[in-house]
């Protein structure tokens, strides 16, 4: 226990946690959303041995290794737990599977009746391999690297639960929210509870910070955004804080754009993500100066590499330096990304200091 208590002070040395404490650094920390995955040959090799994608997520030996692969290769400042946002509906009793080459498929929940057939609370025992992965990764990572846990925001997870798939199919969830707001609210409430329990378990297992991914709420008009993105994420953060008072949180409502200012004022997080299409200088002006911004290099510039990638990195550094910054992409790494381009991005960021 004494050893456990001694850890946070040494971990404060990480550039990533310094940024979330409001420090401005000459060399900002860098990590990338989807930094583990199919663009890495060592991932593809392990994935072929593991069986399905969910088997990979639920097998601590495999998940630990995959989480650490990009850290070894690129010396990034933070590792992100290898898992998926859809383990939450899975642990609520929804049938979730990943179809090769197509993505996630769920048995859709489109009515109050179907919704009532799910569990009322998350099955944390089912997710115990995920928490074991968190503690193993933390013990294998050096102290100057942070470990990020995560969950999907209630709205984004609901879009998959209601449509049964990803892609451009967020319309079914929006339709349900307009037609049956009470049903949709009940689904949100359940996801707030389940996601809070999942984040708390990751923090207690050793995650240094957690990120909440709201990948699809940016498409909502402002009043709907306030109701289905801001309010549930605020409730989620409050619940996490009630159990882990010093929890470090990054909230990422991709594409929030001009809605970011109100979102950041409402939500008690130490960092906010910004997406590729958003103006980083406008985002910086909209968010209090001691709060970190994270983003927002175009993942397609990372595919391109060369001078275009250097320019894309420099543009983000120019707009966001002088304030707490975590350099990242505006969305996840694409599968066709040459790994050398990630090395180029890291070198560019490190040489900026
Ligand atoms: O960032 C990381 O490296 C950590 C792991 C991680 C994954 N998914 C692994 C994954 C994280 C943080 C996620 C988040 C996630 N998952 C989001 C939010 C971020 C975003 O991208 O908008 C969403 C919407 C999902 C749901 C999901 N999972 C989709 C739509 C897909 C299919 C698309 C695809 O790229 O295959 C997945 C599958 C998935 N999740 C893979 C990985 C590495 C690919 C699985 C494989 O190996 O086949």
Automatic annotation (TrEMBL):
The gene is hemE. Pathway: Porphyrin-containing compound metabolism; protoporphyrin-IX biosynthesis; coproporphyrinogen-III from 5-aminolevulinate: step 4/4. It comes from the Bacteria. Gene3D superfamilies: 3.20.20.210. One of its GO terms (biological process) is protoporphyrinogen IX biosynthetic process from glutamate. Homodimer. Its main location: cytoplasm. Its EC number is 4.1.1.37. Substrate binds at residues 34-38, 84, 160, 215, 331. It is found in: Cytoplasm. The keyword Cytoplasm applies. It catalyses: uroporphyrinogen III + 4 H(+) = coproporphyrinogen III + 4 CO2. This is Uroporphyrinogen decarboxylase. Transmembrane segments: none annotated. Catalyzes the decarboxylation of four acetate groups of uroporphyrinogen-III to yield coproporphyrinogen-III.
């Amino acid at each position: 226990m004494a050893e456990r208590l001694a850890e946070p002070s040494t971990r404060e040395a990480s550039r990533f946690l310094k940024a979330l404490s409001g420090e401005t650094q000459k060399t900002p920390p860098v990590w990338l959303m989807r930094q583990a995955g199919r663009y890495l040959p060592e991932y593809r090799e392990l994935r072929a041995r593991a069986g399905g994608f969910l088997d990979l997520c639920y097998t601590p030996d495999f998940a630990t290794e995959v989480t650490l692969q990009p850290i070894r290769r690129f010396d990034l400042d933070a590792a992100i737990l290898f898992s998926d946002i859809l383990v939450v509906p899975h642990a609520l009793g929804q049938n979730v599977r990943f179809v090769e080459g197509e993505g996630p498929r769920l048995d859709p929940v489109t009515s109050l009746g179907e919704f009532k057939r799910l569990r009322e609370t998350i099955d944390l025992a089912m997710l115990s391999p995920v928490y074991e992965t968190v503690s193993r990764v933390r013990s294998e990572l050096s102290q100057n690297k942070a470990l990020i846990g995560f969950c999907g925001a209630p709205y984004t997870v609901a879009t998959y639960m209601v449509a049964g798939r990803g892609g451009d199919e967020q319309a079914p969830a929006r339709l349900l929210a307009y037609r049956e707001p009470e049903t949709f609210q009940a689904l949100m409430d359940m996801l707030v509870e389940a996601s809070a329990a999942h984040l708390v378990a990751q923090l207690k297992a050793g995650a240094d910070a957690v990120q909440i991914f709201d990948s699809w709420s940016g498409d909502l008009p402002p009043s709907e955004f306030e109701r289905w993105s801001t309010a549930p994420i605020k409730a989620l953060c409050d619940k996490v804080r009630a159990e882990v008072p010093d929890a470090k949180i990054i909230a990422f409502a991709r594409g929030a754009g001009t809605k970011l200012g109100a979102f950041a004022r409402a939500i008690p997080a130490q960092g906010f993500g910004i997406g590729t299409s958003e103006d980083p200088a406008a985002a910086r002006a909209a968010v209090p100066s001691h709060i970190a911004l994270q983003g927002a290099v175009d993942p397609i510039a990372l595919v391109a590499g060369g001078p275009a990638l250097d320019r894309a990195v420099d543009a983000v550094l120019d707009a966001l330096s002088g304030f707490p910054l975590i350099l990242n992409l505006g969305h996840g790494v694409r599968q066709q990304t040459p790994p050398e381009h990630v090395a180029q991005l890291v070198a560019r960021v490190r040489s900026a200091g």
